[in-house]
Design a protein that fits this description.
Two copies of one chain form a homodimer. With 341 residues, chain A is α+β, with helices and mostly antiparallel strands. Chain A has a domain at 36-236 and 303-337. Chain A is built from nine helices and 14 strands. The first copy, chain A, has helices spanning 5-16, 53-75, 80-94, 137-147, 155-164, 178-192, 261-266, 269-279, 284-298; strands spanning 38-46, 113-119, 125-131, 152-154, 204-205, 208-213, 219-225, 235-236, 246-248, 254-259, 303-308, 314-315, 322-329, 334-337. In chain A, strands 1, 2, 3, 4, 5, 6, 7, 13 and 14 form a nine-stranded mixed β-sheet that branches. The relative contact order of chain A is 0.18. β8 (235-236) of chain A pairs antiparallel with β4 of chain B, so a sheet runs across the interface.
């Protein structure tokens, strides 16, 4: 760890101050009835064949709680940014998803987590990657967005920034999770055998994502993940990369992805869906479908996305066996699905 | 440093083997006369007002040498990937740009470097970020692309991967550069004064980029950088982020950016230029101009790009005072410009 940095950082942050003002607040009129709002979330695409009720129920319960928390913020006129952050914090706390207390462990037996948040009104964005001691990576991503001039901070530097902002660094035991520990040990044992299968059957990319449209008509997106189980230390997937796994732009749409991140990076998936909406004037559902069910499928890129536009349209395509996802609107009713109808 | 990792990594790499095959080789016919090729490079946008001949001449000489090296590879039928990597290695070695031996130092007084490379034929991509002991980040990025299933490795994990591949980790003194050391000391002194200017006048974002179109009609892109002077440790800019500062796709175009990376990330600049070409059928020059001279200017996002398509069109818009850039085609003649005509 770099010892000299905290003081220097604190001094410089005082000068750097808040983020540079973005000269691009997009103020299109809200194209919906006043008072409408939408929150869409996912809890990861993948193979749910091995998923027992004992495993799925806590995930459904956590997703419900997260949707309720975000819904309540949106219902009282709160911002889409506040809603997606609050909802994601609950997912990170739950231990039921590959984020926060449920994050997979790397080959070194500890979590390395990534998160990103983006404001569709201003294009302001913040992200962190490869952090090991942060209880709520999504909130640290928001601090990067609001308290620095930067978008992405990684590793020890991101944790030094956290400390300078009064965020406590937590012990690895904070992230102890019996299922993840068992999965790590099984994978470690398998790796020691020659010709071990590289990918266990029934893996769920339990990344979590949230998109919101608030009463003012502004979109926001947030994604938080622990990456893949037994991943190489330092590997960063699509979640914290703006345009790959996370994107929000009032002019087009908001997207959060889940799946094999590398394919989402190479295809700049989130930005591509929104580019099709903006430039080809495709309906959101077609744009999301064309990317996830055609482009990604051609490349064997497993995964899915949730997408949301300013008219309140929602798309949830996935090319995997399942993707747990939920939606709530102004009527307050929560709908959660994991498989295609 | 993580001590346990190297053995585990080596074992796992043996299993992980080479990158997953990408089921997407794009085999459009080359739309140019057989035997044509193009190499375009930049050495950073910024304010060249303070740039003396003693400073600019070594940069021009290095850029010339890099263009020659890439040209020679392309002329004998080599791939665009080989050409951009070879050219960028010369830029990294030169000490005249913000990359490799010329990388700026962070607040901790050491370089933290980023690089990315992308193959427009397959969309294969590799990148590294926040590496401190790598002489040629661009070659490590290519190893990530070709020898792992991943796209982006950061920090200590990326360096462990380098070591597992037989890449020597170099001392910080390898990156000693009198000008960067002086710039670091001046900035450090300024930061200690209250109300110091956050950004010195005349700063050049000396990121370097290379794009090539080879005789087979395939595009490739590469970008390598040391980021900004006195940056926060762990800060990652647009250069290693696919779609932000680096992108190549035979179906649309190749782009490498230079400037204030955060604006390039939020606007997913490289992918957006190519999306305009692909979806709006805009000429390359118009697409690049609209993004750099309109979208970025509106947001006060300083910088520029080089862009190249499969027809051999080149665009080099920049909204800063200057951007050193050069082009060479099959006639072998090298042209280098820094300012607008």
């Amino acid at each position: 760890m770099r010892l000299s940095s905290c003081l220097a950082l604190a001094a410089v942050l005082a000068l750097a101050g808040t983020a540079a003002p973005l000269a691009r607040p997009i103020t299109l009129p809200p194209p919906r009835a006043a008072g409408d709002f939408v929150l869409v979330m996912h809890g990861g695409a993948g193979s749910y064949t091995d998923a027992s009720p004992e495993r799925l129920e806590p995930a459904r319960a956590a997703l419900t709680q997260a949707l309720e928390a975000g819904r309540d913020i949106l219902a009282r006129g709160g911002s889409s940014l506040d809603a997606v952050e609050a909802a994601q914090r609950i997912m990170e706390d739950s231990g039921a998803f590959d984020a926060g207390r449920g994050a997979y462990y790397t080959r070194e037996g500890v979590p390395e987590m990534d998160a990103a948040i983006m404001d569709g009104r201003t294009l302001a964005a913040g992200a962190v990657a490869s952090v090991q001691h942060i209880a709520h990576p999504i909130s640290l991503a928001r601090m990067v967005m609001e308290r620095t001039k930067h978008v992405l901070l990684v590793g020890a530097g991101a944790e030094e920034f956290a400390r300078s902002q009064g965020v406590a660094l937590v012990s690895p035991y904070y992230f102890f999770n019996e299922r993840r520990w068992k999965s790590f040990q099984e994978r470690q044992a398998a790796e020691e055998k020659p010709k071990a299968s590289a990918m266990p059957a029934g893996e769920i990319y339990g990344t979590t994502g949230a998109l919101a449209l608030d009463k003012a008509g502004n979109l926001a997106a947030a994604t938080t993940t622990g990456g893949t189980t037994y991943k190489m230390p330092g590997r960063v997937g699509d979640s914290p990369l703006i345009g790959a796994g996370t994107y929000a732009n009032n002019e087009s749409c908001a997207v959060s992805g889940t799946g094999v991140g590398e394919y989402f990076i190479r295809n700049v998936v989130a930005a591509d869906i929104c580019a099709r909406v903006k430039y080809l004037h495709q309906p959101l559902e077609q744009a999301a479908d064309d990317v996830v069910m055609k482009e990604l499928v051609e490349q064997h890129g497993d995964g899915g996305v949730i997408a949301l536009d300013r008219a309140g349209h929602v798309a949830t395509p996935f090319n995997t066996h399942g993707m747990m996802h939920g939606v709530v609107r102004a009527d307050g009713k929560i709908t959660i699905e994991t498989f295609k109808p």
